[in-house]
Design brief:
Layout (H helix, E strand, L loop, with lengths): L7 E13 L5 E13 L5 E9 L10 H8 L1
Antiparallel strand pairs: 1-2, 2-3
Length: about 70
């Protein structure tokens, strides 16, 4: 999940959902997008199905979901 719109590659899929945070607050999810990241060797890699949550202050990355991508 990420709140910064400018780091996404494209606009994939509109979704109407909420995510619940640890403090029981909820934030609205707008869309799922593809996000570009850079590996240690500076090669780009894309992560698909990343939620854009406009009011989110930090990015959250699930290591379990990343491992599913590479296996």
């Amino acid at each position: 999940m990420c709140g910064r719109k400018e780091i996404f590659k494209d606009f994939s899929k509109n979704v109407q959902d909420n995510v619940s945070l640890r403090d029981s607050s909820k934030l609205q999810v707008k869309v799922k997008r593809k996000m570009k990241i850079f590996q240690k060797d500076e090669k780009p890699q894309y992560i698909s199905n990343v939620y854009h949550v406009p009011n989110m202050k930090s990015n959250i990355l699930s290591l379990g979901q990343l491992l599913e991508m590479v296996t």
